[in-house]
Amino acid sequence: MNGDVRVTALPPVSEAATDRYERLCLSIAGIGFELAWAGAPPAQERSLKFYREFLSDRDHSSGENEINVRLRVHCGELPNLERETSIFDAVANHWRLFRSNGHAVFEMFHTLPPHPLMQVSMMAPDFSSGDVYVRPRKTGRRPTWSLLRVMRPFGELLLIQHLSHGRGVLLHALGVSDQGEGLVFIGRSGAGKSTLANLYKRYKGVTILGDERVIATKEEGRFWLSGTPWPGGAFRVSGHRVPLRKIFFLEHGSCNALIGDARLTHYGLLFQQLFLPFWHGEALGFAVNFAHELIAALPAHRLAFVNDRTAVEFLRAHR
Question: Which InterPro entries does the entry mention (predicted)?
Answer without folding.
Answer: P-loop_NTPase
